[in-house]
Specification:
The chain has 506 residues and is α/β, with parallel strands linked by helices. It is built from 14 helices and 23 strands. Strands 1, 2, 3, 4, 5, 6, 17, 18 and 21 form a 9-stranded mixed sheet that branches. The chain has a 5-stranded parallel sheet with strand order 7-16-8-9-12. Bound molecules: flavin-adenine dinucleotide.
Length: 506
């Protein structure tokens, strides 16, 4: 005999464990330089709006918290990498720790700590037009607890790469190597490299930063690169900053003067890379030449095969990387890896490079919008079929902005510009009494030619090229383009027409 159940059937497991975490006006994903900057501007312009910042890591800083390898530092100057609203007071190029301390000051001054929730991984975001809100699903990395926030506006400040999964190509023989293999994204706190032979695979900014930092203590460091990178060796502190120092100017003045100086310098570099790439190539090689060890093969080791600025130029403050080469503490091999061996790496020429520690400075795995699963009114969003609106919003995705910084200028210059635009957008919505804004292709744009996220002629860094297939697209005219230069955008974005018909308000 069967008996009727006396209690209601148990809810599905996923329903049982999700806790309602409440509603905020704006939900920011990421507590790196973008998320902290966004929160500053939001708080400043809309002091009455409620907001929360969610980050999966256990501390602030994003990139600067993840990367803790010896010598980690910016390769931009901190006057432009710092925010427009907060003077930088140190040398132009700064160590990771100093950048974290700067971010801590912003957090303190803006009282952001109480808005940040660490170890909160955003897994899904679902927009409901009926409710005019996002439902954001979160898993706590420490307790496994699942939470559900709702928000009227989602501000994605998640950066561009997966912090937990660095890019490491497959190489033969890694399992037989008897030393240690380390990725700079996960540097072991207690790694002892004193007296060790270290091979650093890679030639970008990370390799050029790490090598001089460990070259003194390690027995020897070999940089193993497949192909060369452009380097530029400015002084750690700009000569103009040295001249300004005795004038005892207010910090705000020095910050602004230095920002203008660096902005002009980087405008020139970016412009010259398009207009006179051969001259810029020659300039970069020639400025390196006197700093390199005598007799070194510059063609093989220091002459990149791409145009300057098609990938980031690696900054070597005061030429410290070149000094390590000159002093014989470090050396370069340009070749491809044949196999790892028990005691090092054999390259295609047959040479075996001995190693106790191998550092794979091989870059990032790109992550699209924090790997969050987006749905709009129940339909999963396949971003590859969507197009950017000014590199800030995505067509068909309501009430969502994202931050993607500059490649050729400091990332943060764009954080301030995007924040200004988002501020104008929120104010525009308020003025119209709108609760929803969605970038929408105008009828005449229905057949607009779509282009890949990045044009390899413009920028072809490995991590971007490896990920084009998962990224959204851009169109062939504004406002459906992105990755413009700062020189253009600082004119365009503040004046961008928010009522040109590409943003539909409801
Ligand atoms: C070593 C190094 C040096 C660099 N130097 C420079 C430089 O000098 N100049 C320059 O312009 N750029 C530089 N960059 C690029 C740098 O990444 C950016 O400048 C900037 O730090 C990006 O900040 P962000 O806040 O946008 O992203 P991130 O720093 O990546 O921070 C994003 C945060 O969001 C969190 N997050 C992501 N997805 C989720 C999710 N689903 N749920 C919850 N949290 C999530 C991440 O955990 C992370 O903490 C450098 C990069 C590296 C790795």
């Amino acid at each position: 005999m069967t008996t009727a159940p006396t209690t209601a059937p148990a809810p599905a497991p996923e329903e049982t464990s999700i806790e309602d975490a409440g509603h905020v006006d704006v939900l920011i994903v990421g507590a790196g330089v973008s998320g902290i900057g966004a929160a500053h501007h939001l708080r400043d312009e809309f002091p009455d709006r409620t907001f929360v910042i969610l980050d999966v890591q256990d501390n602030r800083g994003g990139t600067w918290w993840t990367h803790q390898y010896p010598g980690v530092r910016s390769d931009s100057d901190l006057f432009t990498y710092g925010y427009r609203f907060k003077p930088w007071r140190g040398p132009s190029i700064a160590a990771g720790e100093a950048i974290l301390a700067y971010l801590d000051e912003v957090i303190k001054e803006d009282d952001l700590d109480r808005h940040i929730r660490y170890r909160h991984r955003v897994t899904a975001a679902s927009w409901s037009t009926e409710d005019r809100r996002w439902t954001v699903e979160v898993t706590r990395d420490d307790t496994g607890q699942r939470l559900r926030f709702t928000t009227g506006f989602l501000w994605m400040c998640q950066g561009y790469y997966n912090h937990a999964k660095p890019h490491r190509p497959e190489w033969e023989g890694t399992d037989r190597f008897q030393g240690l293999i380390v990725h700079p994204q996960r540097w072991p706190e207690d790694l002892d490299f004193a007296g060790k032979r270290v091979v650093v695979i890679g030639s970008g900014a990370t390799a050029a930063t790490l090598i001089p930092a460990i070259a003194g203590e390690a027995e020897h460091v070999t940089m193993l690169q497949r192909s060369p990178t452009y380097y530029f060796a400015p002084p750690t502190t700009h000569e103009l900053a040295v001249q300004l120092a005795p004038l005892d100017l207010p910090d705000e003045w020095t910050h602004e003067i230095m920002r203008r100086q660096y902005t002009m310098q980087f405008d020139w570099l970016a412009r010259t890379s398009f207009e006179a790439p051969d001259e810029l190539h020659a300039f970069l090689i020639e400025s390196m030449r006197p700093l390199l060890p005598e007799g070194i093969d510059i063609d093989t080791h220091f002459t990149p095969r791409y145009r300057p600025w098609q990938q980031r130029i690696a900054v070597v403050p005061d030429g410290d990387f070149f000094a390590a080469l000159r002093e014989g503490k470090a050396s370069i091999v340009t070749d491809t890896i044949d196999t790892f061996t028990e005691h090092g790496i054999r390259v295609s020429s047959g040479e075996e490079i001995p190693a106790d520690i191998i550092v794979t400075a091989t870059g990032f795995t790109m992550s699209l919008l924090g790997d969050v699963a987006f749905t709009v009114d129940g339909e999963p969003v396949d971003f590859t079929e969507h197009v950017t609106w000014r590199g800030i919003m995505i067509n068909g995705v309501p009430n969502m902005a994202y931050v993607f910084g500059y490649f050729r200028h400091s990332w943060t210059l764009r954080v301030d510009l995007v924040s200004d635009l988002v501020g104008r957008l929120l104010a525009n919505m308020q003025a119209k009494g709108a609760t929803m804004v969605v970038p929408t292709l105008r009828p005449e744009e229905a057949d607009m030619q779509l282009r890949p996220f990045a044009d390899p002629e413009n920028f072809n860094a490995g991590y971007v090229m490896r990920s084009q297939h998962i990224l959204f697209k851009q169109g062939d005219h504004e406002p459906w383009t992105h990755m413009l230069e700062h020189e253009q955008e600082r004119e365009i974005l503040p004046k961008a027409d928010l009522d040109d018909g590409t943003l539909v308000y409801r």
